[in-house]
Amino acid sequence: MLLCVGSSKGIVLLDPERARVPLMVHADPAPVWCLAADCFDRNLIYAGSNECVALGNARTMRTLSRSRDGGKSWEDITPRGSVDEDVWAIAASPSEPGWLLVGTSRGRLLRSYDAGQTFEECLGLRDVRSRLRWEPGCAGSAPRVRAIVFDPSQPEVFYVAVEGGGVFRSREGSDSFEPLNNGLNLDVHSIAVSPYDSNVLYAATGAGFYRSTNGGRLWSPVLLECVRSYAVPTLATNQPVGAVFTAAGFGPPQTWIREGGARARLFRSVDGAQSFQAVTVELEEDPLHGMVMTIVQNPARPDEFFATTSRGMVLRSQDGGETFTSLTANLPPAYSALVLA
Questions:
Q1: Residue 136: is the preceding peptide bond cis (ω within 30°)?
Q2: Torsions phi, psi for 36 (to 5 deg)
Q3: pLDDT at position 128
Q4: How far is it, in rounded angstroms, from Cα 142 to Cα 173?
Q5: How many Cα atoms are found within 13 Å in the side-chain-facing hemisphere of 13?
Q6: CA 339/CA 272 separation, integer angstroms
Q7: Are 129 and 171 in contact (CB under 8 A)?
Q8: Structural domains in the chain?
Q9: In 193-231, which positions are buried (b, 16+ CB within 10 angstroms) versus exposed (e)?
Q10: Rounded-to-integer distance, Cα 160 and Cα 168, Å
Q11: How far is the C-alpha of 76 from the C-alpha of 316, rounded, in Å?
Q12: Which of 126, 177, 194, 325 could be cross-linked to 200 through a Cys-Cys bond (beta carbons 3.0 to 4.6 Å apart)?
């Protein structure tokens, strides 16, 4: 098993058993904010790049890249007509090989049915009635598509989160989008769907964590311990039963580079996000100076989890997420991760 990490300096491939010495580092594409793997071919990986001034990222002209050999080599597949847009979210369909969704810095959603050979825009998101009321994102940036997730029980349904615009749902491959923002803070950073019940949705926002039990018609905030309100990642798992993970710090990216950093904490719920408890991180640096950017589960070992931070740390749990330890702490800022077979 290998761990593919997207960082501010490019792709890093790690063997978790020997993680202090990376197996391979790619400086191009860089920086890598988001990653996705094809549902039938885990060697087919996509990487999205963006420029985040608050974190010191400066991208090249390549904003979307593809690897067909598990991250060992990469090619540019930046969609025509979007070379001046950053990529903030990528999702591959869990049921249709080659079906890819890409979210950009201008609040656009692009779709490919042929593994990134060609793209078309999902015009329905551009036409949503609330678009003119979308709020600027971090540091005054334009509202951007920050997350895309497919419903694990109904793969023809997917959700799009716009930072400053909220959550939208598309059903059965339709090009229309239904807003799901009643009671939800619109500064959405990530979303997840319960693998047990498609009516249960989760969202991490700049004003805390939210949960809906009726398909997004109404959201309710969920208290996080330790007074952390700026939540970034969300992970809903089917093992351990009902486990949901998130992480939160005291403020937005501009604060993460100050003395003391993000002061982030990892949180775990064992009751479907009705309540959360802070996770033990067995480090001297707890709370974490770097913000936890993503949390992923090892499909082959459901009790194993990995998390990356904005200060180049990769954390690992081998006990179902009860405790995390440092796998490596010498990477550039690490924003995303994939577990490769």
A1: no
A2: -150, 150
A3: 86
A4: 27
A5: 16
A6: 24
A7: no
A8: 2-340 (2.130.10.10)
A9: bbeeeeebbbbbbbebbbbbbebbeebebbebeeebbbb
A10: 5
A11: 31
A12: 194
Q: Could you report the per-residue pLDDT of 35-50, keeping only the tens digit for each?
A: 999 989 989 999 999 8
What is the structure's pLDDT at 57?
65
| Residue type (1 letter), 257 | I
User: If you write DSSP's letter for every residue of 296-310 in order, what string do you get?
Assistant: EEETTEEEEEEEEET
What is the separation, in whole angstroms, between the first and last Cα of the chain? 5
Query: Could you please report the per-residue DSSP string of 224-239?
Result: PGGG--EEEEEEE-SS
Q: What is the mean pLDDT of the chain?
A: 90
Which candidate, 170, 174, 208, places its Cα nearest to that of 189?
A: 208
Q: Residue 172 phi/psi, 5° resolution? A: 50, 45
Amino acid found at 253:
P
At 28, is the secondary structure helix, strand, or coil? coil
